[in-house]
Amino acid sequence: MSWLEKVRNKIPFIVKRETPDNLWHRCSSCQTMIFNKDYEENLSVCPKCGFHGRIGSRARFDSLFDEGDYSVLPPPVVQEDPLKFRDTKRYADRLKAARLKSGENDALLNAKGLFGGRQTVIGVQDFSFMGGSMGLAVGSAFVAGVKAAIECRSPYIIFTAAGGARMQEGILSLMQMPRTTAAIAALREAGLPYIVVLTDPTTGGVTASYAMLGDIQIAEPGALIGFAGQRVIESTIREKLPEGFQRAEYLLAHGMIDMVVPRFEMRDRLISLMDYLLPVSEPA
Amino acid sequence: MVSYLDFEKPVAELQTRIAELRKATSDEMDLDREISDLEVKVQKLLRDTYAHLTPWQKTQVARHPERPHFHDYISGLCEDFIPLAGDRLFGEDEAIIGGLARIDNQRVMIIGQEKGNDTASRIKHNFGMARPEGYRKAIRLMKMADRFGLPVVSLVDTSGAFPGIDAEERGQAEAIARSTETCLSLGVPLISVIVGEGGSGGAIAIAAANRLLMFEHAIYSVISPEGCASILWRDAGKASDAATAMKLTATDLYGLGIVDRIVLEPVGGAHRDPKSAIAALKTALLQELAFLTPMDQDVLRSMRRKKFLDIGG
Fold first, then answer.
1. Mind listing the domains of chain A with CATH numbers?
2. What is the spatial distance between Cα A278 and Cα B114, in angstroms, rounded to a whole number?
3. With respect to CATH, is domain B58-309 assigned 3.90.226.10?
4. How far apart are alpha carbons B211 and B197 in whole angstroms?
5. What residues form the membrane-spanning segments (chain B) (predicted)?
6. How confident is the model over B110-121, as a mean pLDDT?
7. DSSP states of A214-277
8. Span B134-167, pLDDT tens digits
9. Tens digit of each residue's pLDDT (9 = 90 or more) over B49-59
10. A46 is an annotated ligand-binding site residue
11. What is the pTM of this model?
């Protein structure tokens, strides 16, 4: 508290004005100022230039499920901080801070509900939770999502966003790559579609495992998608990277994904894909 | 000429002293006694040093340029080796070598990264950093092994998959993911060995195995200690701290249940006596093969999947 606030708070007749500091959003691409409320209603897409901002798990679920109605699956219980890791801060403290800030347990959340009239399980990774990074909790949530999908004979749709593996969990985070891949094998054997929607950014071990194994690979416009980080590549090859490198459109041009779909069209596109991949006979 | 690591300085000094005494030996001066005393001392010093290596020192040993590499293992392990080239899609990536081999008359498919041992061969093998073609060749060979009932042995030695523009545009991430998926689908035994450096996704792509073996002084981690230090400490100089925090040694990984078996190295590391290191690996591999080969393909597959599904679950 500044000295000014200390003084002012003692003076009862001066009413403190409520001005939230997040009233406006500045588009990080075209710099346009937008009312935060309008921006959120626009699914965090800039109404001027169409730039797709990052979006949290619950806002994503709201925009997808029929009537915005869904139930969030309980996060799996995992061993916390298995290596008792500490860098400049304790990992346990970083985790606590991320939970406090987000109100969520970890970076991957699953929800179940009607989607185009069918029971569907959707997972969303949230980059704002420790960079969406994959540790035991994300791996376990992915496995749980697949399991829930198999139980209700639904596809598993995953929206990815991650800087990569969670280094603070060392080798156990690396092991989530084969772990999630093994879960996908079970989904495939059950004859159910596995759909990946790559959102900004998806890199590292997440890209090199479940994010690249979808029956159908979709990306949001402009999303950064790759294996190695751009700085690492630049310092290895000592060359400037080409324009649009590792962006969704670049991956499309190189044959790595099926399509780039804007956020407004995502729900309809996913539903029409499901209409092709799932049995026709079950009007819910 | 052996190259010494910084922590081996006392050993290097003793060796220099021994060399000097050898030169000074003549008919008048018999220094054999002193020399053999010093040699005993060197052995003891090496044993003590290598019994207490820090994770960062192990990292240096695992990367030692004279440590045996893929081709050394092939010539020491196998009576016969027929290399198979190409991914049938784009090219031939010599960072990953693979082929048909006989180990003690048992037919296997053997695959692994080769780092090279001089400038020309290091460039040829891209320092053991594979591009998508390398992983797609591994996929092709693993699937072939599966069709013809050959167990697969993979020898992992890479700082990681190659980070480059060409690798990205040809789908490095997809190639790694697909290779991991292929490992998990095999109906034949897959035995992987971390022989030197097990660097992240570039390693796991060929190491999602039934049994994971690891050399005593090898390392296996999600990111290099330097990479981890520069991200989390914002200082690549803290690599030693990062190496300790990440738990990347064979003993740590055995304790975490990731590594199934540690293969002991000769005193002073595999690079001081490659022959006995390779012999120790051969013994271990033959035992593992004998254990896995009789198993049914469904058992092998489901056992392998369960092993990974249970990590953290």
1. 1-51 (no CATH), 54-277 (3.90.226.10)
2. 45
3. yes
4. 17
5. none
6. 97
7. -SEEEE-TT-BB-SS-HHHHHHHH-SPPPTTTTBHHHHHHTTS-SEE--HHHHHHHHHHHHHHH
8. 999 999 999 999 999 999 999 999 999 999 999 9
9. 999 999 999 99
10. yes
11. 0.93
